[in-house]
Every structure is written in structure tokens, then in C-alpha cells.
Design brief:
The protein has about 500 residues and is α/β, with parallel strands linked by helices. It contains 16 helices and 24 strands. The strands form seven sheets. A seven-stranded mixed β-sheet has the order 14-17-18-13-12-20-21, sandwiched between helices. A six-stranded mixed β-sheet has the order 9-8-7-10-11-23, sandwiched between helices. The radius of gyration is 24 Å and the shape is globular.
């Protein structure tokens, strides 16, 4: 694999962008220079889409074993280069070693699932209401897919769309987040180049949203836009795509609840909350945003939780013992600190943490939080645990569903049936009983409700998103059209 990632990848060639601007790639922990990339222009984007469209026409008709072989080679390349990819995730996205290693592992599983898709492009033969007719339904690629990848889990959240799109016969153009151009895009150009993917099928354009952000959606070639990121940006993409009659797969923001019922195992709930809240500094769409605890066990839970949070190590993400690394930039830390201060003014109390050095925010625990405070209303996307007390199950359901998000969640109860029945009442795309909210399995439907997005990733559900179906009616014998064509 390559080691120098300072160029775009268009039509099988590594090339400089033609924009006047540059992307300065920096380590969020220490500010180290990771390289400068000459950004993509609208002309570069058009070249990428044209290349993908041309290459896709032949790729769509390629034999399934050929597509699968490319996917399997890509998996082996990732497996052979895990430490290099982990290193890039640490220095480019601020991932701790534990998080980066976990991200590569789940990415490999996602790629292995995608490798099965070429043999799962199933069709159907259905009966007809017309005598002598046969109805055939064929599953086909969409054509070209535009992918906009995020900075928080850049490798995994890019590959789950890239691998799926390619395995189902599509061409691809990727625009990675400017914070993570390598782990969200350019690494895949090198991986699939080495895996023998035909020239032009995968293109990576690193550019500023202000220059090409709208154009990657509105360009006439892509039929699907896959985006993971904020609800605000997702709305914009949905609006642009809708005007141009394009499909979208949108995984957006979350305000995920972690609910501890009065019969929960407190120690188990604390361990789940610790992981679900602080994994990758809470910079995950599925991270716990609100911890809701029944009033009768609230104090016991808080004491046990704070005791465990104090054990977390904060600092350099390259050190394997580190649990909490930096936020992606100082703007994120400042935004969260403002929400903490505003919530304190409304009566919340910071009982641990609440301070930051540059973009390294200490793990923070707040109590006395209510559902209308900024730290509860807004997606935190940082290492702050907001704890809300509730009186009974009915209040917990009401509070859980009060905000316009519905991505993931969790509920803890010693009764599996009680927990499952409660989970049914929470308006969310995913929820887990006696676990935490950060779960992703490559064969399970991943996606949200309400303001948390549209569509589903993974497994048969991703296969549905990244393909289309065509009805071909076959008339085996001459059809009688009745009086309409009777001879006079």
C-alpha cells in the first residue's frame, strides 16, 4: 500500500486537485502536520463522476466471482495492513488505540459481508394476471453512488458504503471529511487499487464543502447519495437530492437515551454506560446522550458511575492505556463547554470534570439535568454524561421520545420481557436491552427514525438501498387485446 496520501484519486490516477485551495491535514492531539492536499475543483468532481459512470457499465456485467474476488483481496490487504491503518486513525482522527483497533475490526467484518453481495443479487419470477405472460423481476445496480464520509469513524463509515456499492456493481465517488481525508477516502483508493479493482470505478475527491459540497449531490450522474453526519447537513443533502429525484441513504445525528429502570443490575448498567458514553470521547452518532435513571436507584448509580469514570485515562491517543483522547478540534470543545455552562445556569451540577485543555475535554458527569437543558436537548458528541432522574416508566418513555431524534438507545432491567416491552415504546431505529447504544453488526439493519436519518445500512437492507429492481414482462403467446383492436 501507499504511504504518501497527498493527492486525489481519479480514474485510476493519483493527481493534484485543480482548486486554488488546499486541505491541511493535522493531528488533532498535537497539531502535527500530516500532509497538504491540493483540493478538488468542480471540474475534478465532474471528471470523477464521468470516470465512474464509464467504468461502471462494464463492471455491472462482470461475473459475480470476479467482483467477490476483488472484495476478498481488499479484505486481505486491510488485514495485512491493520497497524498502518490504526496508526492513521490515531493521528488523523484522534482515535485511541482501542477505538482504532475496534474500528478496523468492524470494517473487516463489513467488507466480508459485502463480499457476499455479488451472489445475492436475486430476482424473482412472479405470476401474471394476463394469459401466457410471465413476470420477471431483476435486481440491478443503481449506476454511480456518491459517498460523503464523516470524520468520527471515517474508515468504517466510509467502507460500509464503498464496499457495498462496488460489490453490487456500482461505480463510486467518495468525498471524505476534510478532517480525515486519508482514513475516510484515500486509504481505500490504495486498498482497492492493490486489490485489482478496474480503473475508474472508485474515485476519491478531497475538497471543501464550500466548493464542491452541493455539486457532489446535484451532479446529474449519481443516483444515490450516501451520507453520514449531522442532521443539519443531512437535511441540506436530502433537499438537494429530492429536487433532483435521487435516492439518499442518510445516517444523521442522535440524542440517544440510556434508561436504567428501578429493577436494573446497577453494576452492569454502570459498565454499559461507561462504554456507551466515553468510547471515542463520545464522538459517535450512537453514543449515549442522556442517561435516565429511576429516582429510587439514582444516587447508587451515580456513585458507582463516578467511581468508574475517575479510572479513565485521558491524554495521548497513541498510548495504548488511554481511554479519552482529543476532540476533533477546539471548536467542538468550546461548543460543549457552552452547553455545560448554560445547563449549570439552569440548575444542573457538574460533579466531575467540566474543564478542557485545548481540545482535550476531561470526562465529565452532570446531575440534576432536565430534558430541556442544552446538555440534554443537543447532541453532545463529547465525553459528557448528563444524568436525568425519572419517577416511573411512563415518564421515562415520554422523556425518551420528547426530542426529534431516534437513532439508537438502551434500556436496563432485570426482567428481559420488561426491558423488551419498554424498548418497543422508544421511537428509535435501534435499541438494546441490558447493553449500551454503540452497536453495529454487518448483517443487522443500521439506521434511525425521525431526524436521525433515512434508510438502512448493512446486510440485506444495504443491498436494497444500493440497488434497484426492474420488471420485465415476457409475453409467451400472442395476447388478446379485446375489442380495442377488433377488425372492422
Amino acid at each position: 500500500m501507499k504511504t504518501d496520501f497527498t493527492k486525489l484519486f481519479i480514474n485510476g490516477e493519483w493527481t493534484d486537485g485543480n482548486s486554488d485551495s488546499t486541505i491541511n491535514n493535522r493531528n488533532p492531539y498535537d497539531g502535527a502536520d500530516l500532509g497538504t492536499i491540493k483540493a478538488a475543483s468542480k471540474e475534478d468532481l465532474d471528471h470523477a463522476y464521468q470516470s465512474a459512470q464509464k467504468a461502471q457499465q462494464e463492471w455491472a456485467n462482470e461475473l459475480p466471482q470476479v467482483k467477490r474476488e476483488v472484495m476478498e483481496k481488499a479484505v486481505r490487504i486491510v488485514e495485512d495492513n491493520q497497524e498502518m491503518i490504526i496508526d492513521w486513525l490515531i493521528k488523523e482522527s484522534g482515535s485511541t488505540y482501542m477505538k482504532a483497533a475496534g474500528e478496523v475490526k468492524v470494517s473487516i467484518l463489513s467488507m466480508k459481508e459485502a463480499a457476499t453481495y455479488p451472489y445475492r443479487m436475486e430476482g424473482k419470477i412472479l405470476p401474471s394476471q394476463v394469459p401466457g405472460k410471465e413476470n420477471r423481476v431483476y435486481r440491478e445496480p443503481l449506476g454511480v453512488v456518491g459517498i460523503i464520509s464523516p470524520w468520527n469513524f471515517p474508515f468504517h463509515l466510509a467502507v460500509r458504503s464503498i464496499a457495498t456499492a462496488l460489490a453490487t456493481g456500482n461505480g463510486v465517488v467518495v468525498k471524505p471529511a476534510t478532517h480525515t481525508p486519508v482514513t475516510g477516502g484515500l486509504l481505500f483508493a490504495s486498498i482497492f487499487e492493490e486489490a485489482g479493482l478496474p480503473k475508474g470505478l472508485l474515485n476519491v475527491v478531497v475538497g471543501r464543502g464550500s466548493e464542491i459540497g452541493d455539486d457532489i449531490v446535484t451532479h446529474p450522474i449519481p443516483r444515490l447519495i450516501s451520507f453520514t453526519g449531522s442532521t443539519e447537513v443531512g437535511r441540506r443533502i436530502g433537499e438537494l437530492a429530492g429536487k433532483n429525484l435521487k435516492k439518499t441513504a442518510l445516517e444523521l445525528g442522535g440524542n440517544n437515551v440510556f434508561i436504567v429502570l428501578d429493577d436494573a443490575d446497577i453494576d452492569q448498567a454502570v459498565e454499559s454506560a461507561l462504554f456507551g458514553k466515553f468510547y471515542h470521547q463520545g464522538q459517535i452518532c450512537m453514543s449515549i446522550n442522556r442517561i435516565m435513571v429511576h429516582k429510587d436507584i439514582h444516587d447508587k448509580f451515580v456513585d458507582a458511575f463516578v467511581s468508574r469514570v475517575k479510572e479513565l485515562n485521558t491524554g495521548n491517543p497513541a498510548e495504548k492505556a488511554t481511554h479519552i483522547g482529543p476532540l476533533i478540534d477546539e471548536d467542538q470543545a468550546e461548543r460543549i463547554l457552552k452547553d455545560i455552562d448554560a445547563s449549570k445556569e439552569q440548575g444542573a451540577e457538574v460533579i466531575l470534570g467540566g474543564d478542557a485543555k485545548d481540545n482535550l475535554l476531561s470526562p465529565t458527569v452532570m446531575t440534576g439535568v432536565t430534558n430541556d437543558m442544552p446538555i440534554a436537548k443537543n447532541e453532545i458528541f463529547g465525553p459528557v454524561a448528563a444524568i436525568i432522574a425519572f419517577d416511573d416508566d411512563e415518564e421515562a418513555v415520554r422523556l425518551a421520545n420528547e426530542h426529534p431524534y431516534g437513532l439508537s438507545g438502551a434500556v436496563h432491567s432485570s426482567s428481559i420481557e420488561r426491558g423488551t416491552n419498554f424498548a418497543h415504546r422508544v421511537q428509535t431505529g435501534m435499541i438494546h436491552v441490558n447493553d449500551e447504544s454503540v452497536n453495529d453488526e454487518p448483517h443487522m439493519p443500521f439506521g434511525g427514525e425521525k431526524d436521525s436519518g433515512l434508510g438502512r445500512f448493512n446486510g440485506e437492507w444495504a443491498l436494497e438501498e444500493f440497488t434497484t429492481v426492474k420488471w420485465i414482462g415476457v409475453q409467451h403467446k400472442r395476447r388478446d387485446y379485446g375489442p380495442f383492436i377488433e377488425k372492422k
